[in-house]
Design a protein that fits this description.
The chain has helices spanning 2-12, 27-33, 44-60, 72-82, 88-104; strands spanning 16-22, 64-70. By secondary structure, it is an alpha+beta fold. It has one domain. The chain is globular, with a radius of gyration of 17 Å.
């Protein structure tokens, strides 16, 4: 009986992920503030094309994808408060924390 309930719960769970979206006017600041500047050696348009492709790919894998619009100044303040550098891992962590805030504030709902 316990195993059945666990399997049923797993089927009801919705996989969710966040993808950070950056504003064009803050793209240069993001590039300068990040330690992985080579990641941003591409144009804003190219970065957005990659972001959209990742979004579609994650949806095709069954994820509920939430766009997290990132204000670079807020990201910088967050990173400074934790004494961490801006890199792929920290930017992802920030987007996930923003997603949690959106879920807890009920700005985003996750339904099956």
């Amino acid at each position: 009986m316990q195993k059945y309930r666990w399997e049923k719960m797993k089927k009801l769970q919705k996989r969710i992920c966040s993808i950070p979206y950056y504003r064009r006017e803050q793209y240069d600041l993001l590039r300068e503030a990040s330690i992985d500047k080579e990641t941003f050696s591409i144009s804003y348009e190219e970065m957005m094309a990659i972001t959209e492709s990742t979004h579609r790919d994650m949806e095709s894998k069954g994820f509920h994808v939430v766009r997290v619009y990132v204000d670079i100044y807020e990201l910088l303040e967050w990173a400074t408060s934790l004494s961490i550098s801006l890199n792929p891992e920290s930017r992802t962590k920030f987007a996930m924390e923003k997603l949690k805030e959106l879920i807890f504030s009920k700005s985003v709902t996750v339904c099956n």
